[in-house]
Amino acid sequence: MVVAVVSVASSAHADDHPVLAPRTAAELLTSMAEMTPPANLSGTVSETVNLGLPALPSMGDSTGAGTLSLLGLVSGTHQIRVWAAGPDKQRVALLGQLAETDFVHNGADIWTYASAAHEVTHSLAPARGPAPEPLATPPTPQALAAAAVAAMDPSTAVTVDSTARVAGRAAYRLVLTPRDTRTLIASVKVAVDAETSVPLQVQVIAKGHADAAIDVSFTQISFAAIDASTFAFTPPAGATVTERAAGADGATTTSPDPSGQAAPHPTVLGSGWTSVVSLKLPTGVPSPRGTKDATSSASSLLEQMSSPVAGGRVVTTALLTVFLADDGTVYAGAVSPADLQQVATSGRGL
C-alpha cells in the first residue's frame, strides 16, 4: 500500500482546495473505519452516471421485487434526498420528474413506496441486527465508499490527492487505485469530510477515461436534528399495500410479490476489484430471449442495449459489464465480457 501525505498551500483557488492539516491515507482510512455515525444526517445527493448508455426510463416495479424500479439510475443525473437519525430511523427518496420512490425505516417498520405504480410494501425490521436495505435503494456516498474500501486488497495503491470542498464542507480527497489489470476501474476518489470523516463524494474513473463514469456527491448536507415526522409514513389513499410477514426473529418470511415468488438475493462471486454479482431474476422479468410475461418494450430495450453471445446477451460499458444469461440470471462486474462469461460459466470468481 502506498501512503501519501497531503499539504495544500494557499492559492487563488483556496476555496476549492481548503488548507487542512496534513493527514496520511492510512489515517483517513482509519478515521472512516472508526467513525461514529452522526446522530443526525440529512441532505441532497446528486448521482451522475455516464457509462455510455442512452438515458433509460424507470420501468416500474412490475415484478414486485423492485429489481427494475430504479433502472433509470444507470444513466443520466438524478437527485436523491436522504435522512438518518440513528440505526432505527432512515429515509431515502429518489426524485423523478413525475414520480418519487421512497424507502422509510422507522423503528420496527420498513416501508417502500413507488408513486408511479401507487404501490406500497410494508415489512418488519429484524428483531436483531440492522434493517436490511432493499435492492432498489439508491446509492449514497457512504455506501459507495464502504464498497470501495471493502474491495481493497494489499495491491491497492492508496494516496491522498489534495483537498476539496463538497457541499460547502472542507474534505480530503482519498484515491484508491487498483493494480489488478483485469478490472475496468482506473481509480476511485473519495472526498472525506475533514471534521466528521463522513464520505461526501465518490467518483469512479474507468480506464482510458478522464471524467468520472460515476459521481455520487452531496450537494447539501446537514447534521442538525431531524423532526420525527420525517420518518412517519402512512400509505396514501388508494395505494396497493403488500404486507410481508415476519418470523419469530423479525426476519421477513414471505415475498412481496403476490405471485408467491421469493425476492431475489444477490450472490457475490470472487473478491476485490474483480468481484462479480449474480442475481436470479423472478419470473416475469424479461430474459434475453423474453418470457411470456415480458413486455415488448422491456424486451426491445434489452435488445438495444445488449449484444448476443453464447448463452445469453452482454451489455458492455466503459466501467461495467452485464451478462444476461438465457436462464434469467444476471451477472455484473467491472471486468471484461470474456472474464464475466468465465465467472458465469464456472460459478467461481476470477
Notes on the protein architecture:
The protein is globular, with a radius of gyration of 21 Å. The protein has four helices and 18 strands. The chain has helices at 25-33, 141-150, 296-305, 337-346, and strands at 41-49, 76-84, 89-95, 100-106, 109-114, 119-124, 157-166, 169-177, 185-193, 199-206, 212-222, 240-243, 267-269, 276-280, 307-309, 312-316, 321-325, 329-333. The strands form two sheets. Strands 7-8-9-10-11-1-2-3-4-5-6-12 form a twelve-stranded mixed β-sheet, covered by helices on one side. Strands 13-14-18-17-16-15 form a six-stranded antiparallel β-sheet. It is mainly beta and 350 residues long. The model is unreliable at 1-14, 56-73, 247-261 and 290-296 (pLDDT under 50). Among the domains are: 41-138 and 233-243, no CATH class; 267-346, no CATH class.
Residues in β-strands, percent: 25-35%
DSSP strand tally = 18
| Radius of gyration over all CA atoms, rounded | 21 Å
- The secondary structure category is mainly beta
**Helical segment tally?**
4
Largest sheet: 12 strands, mixed
Side-by-side strand order of the widest sheet? 7-8-9-10-11-1-2-3-4-5-6-12
Order of helices and strands: HEEEEEEHEEEEEEEEHEEEEH
**N- and C-termini, Cα separation:** 22 Å
Low-confidence stretches: 1-14, 56-73, 247-261, 290-296
Roughly what percent helix? 10-25%
The overall average pLDDT, rounded, is: 79
Shape: globular
